[in-house]
Amino acid sequence: MTLHFDPNSKASANDGIFGLPFSEKDSQVIYLPIPWDVTTSYGKGTHKGPDAVLKASEQIDFFDLEYGMAYEVGLHMKKQSAAIKKANLQLRLHAEKIMDADSDSIKKSKTLSASLSKVNEGSDQLNESIYLDCKKILAQKKTPIILGGDHSVPFGALKAYAETYPNLGILHFDAHSDTRKAYMGFEHSHASIMYNAMTKIPKIGKLVQVGIRDFCEEEYSYTEKHNKIEVHFDVDLQRRKQAGEKWLDIAKEIVSSLPKQIYISFDIDGLDPRYCPHTGTPVPGGLEYHEVTAILAEIVKSGKTIVGFDLVEVAPGPKGDEWDANVGMRLLYKMTAAMLASQKKIRSKL
Ligand SMILES: [Mn+2]
Description:
The structure is a single chain. The chain is built from eleven helices and ten strands. With 350 residues, the protein is an alpha/beta fold. The protein has one domain: Arginase, Chain A (3-Layer(aba) Sandwich). The strands form two sheets. An eight-stranded parallel beta sheet has the order 4-1-5-10-9-6-7-8, sandwiched between helices. Strands 2-3 form a two-stranded antiparallel ribbon. Strand 2 and strand 3 (68-69) form a beta hairpin. Helix 4 packs parallel to helix 5 (155-164) and helix 9 (247-256) crosses helix 10. The radius of gyration is 19 Å and the shape is globular. It binds manganese (II) ion. Residues 151, 174-176, 267, 269, 281, 313 line the site of manganese (II) ion.
């Protein structure tokens, strides 16, 4: 393939993600930007994440010491859907009314109940459209990557991947357990993604959570009792490090608990909040960037395959502050590279 750009010079996001000129047809990896944060309860702005990551992506240096030149297989980001953007803004207004009310008044008020139904129906529609998009791309033997948006958006992708890869393992990086049955009446909120995945997608083989440090008692007992869920709580990981255990050994243990085929669902707030100060619900503690990349490298070395992933909850700071988006786009590129290396589509240097 002829590339009309110089990988050694600065890229421009006007050409495409990471400044790459690939069309969808010429690409192996298709990023789906989803500007959606309807049920985000605390910080808002993650619907602006995909744009911010795209803009920041012109800062990338393609050469990666661990994985070489990952871009060569073709990386392409689709255009954002205007319909999703519009639905997000409209449904947010309904969701805000619900968030301001208590559960009794929602039940009693017809307007509020109608608003809640609208939000739930809108979420179902989003899930269905992402599911169909992912199925289509997977059928072409390509890899759809969801770029959120809040953590409700990958549900359709999880379903499509679980149908494609039997006994799929989900590796979930997050500060939050995300296993609430429903959050404020929202059936598909960012706080329920893994509950929904494990109850509504029975084909998922296992869920391994890493960095978890914010959850309610109900979530704790749900994950403790569930025989397909394994949780590596942040406090336990920290304690083991403090006692002198090597992170590499911990990383190997995490990888060994996963099935052969792995989908990564990455909430940026799994990282220490200094990497993502503007994300919706930051929590102190969390993973170092290099602790994450060590886990990725261990997956590649283990011979297991990262079949796909998502990156969610990246939210840009005020104008001029590119830090959150910068970390997000580097993680996006790193995960893409590790995934392609694990699929043997590029040659790993590990
Ligand atoms: Mn989270």
